[in-house]
Amino acid sequence: MQRFEQSAALTNDTEIPGYLPGQFLQYVADNVDHNIQTIDGKDTFHGMGIIAAVTPSLKTNRYIPILKVTTSELEEIGKIRIHFYSSKPYTNMRYEPLVDLIAEDKTYNIDILWKTT
Questions:
Q1: For the stretch 16-52, what's the b/e string if a residue is b when 16 or more beta carbons lie within 10 angstroms of its beta carbon?
Q2: What is the Cα gyration radius of the chain?
Q3: What CA–CA distance (Å, rounded) separates 81 from 12?
Q4: Both ends of the chain: CA-CA distance in Å?
Q5: What b/e sequence results for 59-96 when a residue is b if at least 16 CB atoms lie within 10 Å of its CB, and e otherwise?
Q6: Mind listing the pLDDT tens digit for each residue in 70-115?
Q7: How many whole angstroms separate alpha carbon 64 and alpha carbon 12?
Q8: Minimal CA–CA distance to 2: which of 78, 67, 46, 80?
Q9: Cα–Cα distance, 44 to 46 (Å, whole number)
Q10: Structure pTM?
Q11: CA 7 to the chain's CA centroid
Q12: Phi, psi at 51, each rounded to 5°
């Protein structure tokens, strides 16, 4: 199973096949740390998992050849280009004044009622 997953990772690369403009693509990542409170920092583990979510979904059928994959090959293809978002500053932005909302609290005497019962 691990060999199949490694072969699929090497075959598919990090590019999303069939991804079209107008579809939403987001990478979702999470990490796990084990044995992190050691004095010398040895025998710790940091793992990272990441998936790509595409909406609307893509359906593909691809043949995955079983390959012998090395760790260095997996490290090389596991890189994702990061695009930083920058927006233009809003120059015509105005805020309406906030209206003060005062509501009567009809429950303020409930504590007195509870204490007297």
A1: eeeeeeeeeeeeeeeeeeeeeeeeeeeeeeeeeeeee
A2: 27
A3: 16
A4: 67
A5: eeeeeeeeeebeeeeeeeeeeeeeeeeeeeeeeeeeee
A6: 888 877 776 766 777 777 766 677 888 888 888 887 777 777 777 7
A7: 9
A8: 67
A9: 7
A10: 0.38
A11: 24
A12: -130, 160
Give the DSSP letter of residue 113: H
Q: How confident is the model at residue 42 (pLDDT cuts 50, 70, 90)?
A: confident
Is residue 80 within 8 Å of 27, Cβ to Cβ?
Answer: yes
Q: Which amino acid is at 31?
A: N
Residue 3 CA to chain centroid, in angstroms? 26
Q: The tokens of 47 are what?
A: 């793992």
User: Tell me, what's the pLDDT at 97?
Assistant: 87
User: Which of these ranges, 5-19, 24-38, 87-101, has the smallest mean pLDDT?
Assistant: 5-19
Pair of tokens at residue 30: 């999470």
Which residues share a beta bridge with 25? 54
Residue ranges per structural domain of the chain: 2-77
Structure tokens at 61: 């059928």
